[in-house]
Fold this sequence. Notes:
The chain has 252 residues and is of the alpha+beta class. The chain is 52% helix and 14% strand.
Amino acid sequence: MNTVTICGHQLPIVEYQGQRVVTLAMVDEVHERPEGTARRNFNEHRPRFIEAEDFFVRNSYEARQMGIAAPNGLTLLTESGYLMLVKSLSDDLAWEVQRQLVRSYFRPAAPAFAVPQNLSEALRFAADLEDQKNQALLERDHAIATKALIGGKREATAMATASAATKKARQLEHELGRGARHATIIAVEKASGRRFGAQGFRPLKKWCKAHGVTPPKVPCPRYGEAVSWPAGAWLEVYGVDLGELFGAEVPA
């Protein structure tokens, strides 16, 4: 692997998708910072960095193919990502390191173009250019696919979290006596706008007795505790569909 010397530190030249990049370990080394400093700062400001523009993430296998040992994966910073990461460093060394990295590492002087001298060299040159283009396209497609996969996993996680939250909310509604399975008279009156009177519970109680059902008692802000009557009683006695009134039942 080719190297370049920056402020007395010999750094390997790492390239990805046709551009030079640096690892977080390289940043710590050349800026003479304790190991892990760049990683900490990157994680702290991670939302500000744009993947595939400011940085790339490679797994340990891909890192080995690049000649880098990274058991926990590898973060590669582009020139823009590097400058964003070190913008808070203002000591004399930091200024000089940034200048040299930009001039000598990220933007090296273009090598003199060697004009092919014969047909064989021209064909070899054309083949090399085609190989480089194909490699860049493969790396770009891989980065896009990886980003899409990460996005899909995040979306699935968000949907699962929302579903769990909905189930929990439904369960709480049931426990408070205003659900699709059973509800208190106060809850139904509030939701439907109807009034059942002081003796409105008696037909519901009669239905429960006839059907061998013991209605549960739930916390009540007005009375401390109230009977939560089953959906069957509400539907048969008063024609109230708790499923429509409070929302359909969420499967467990």
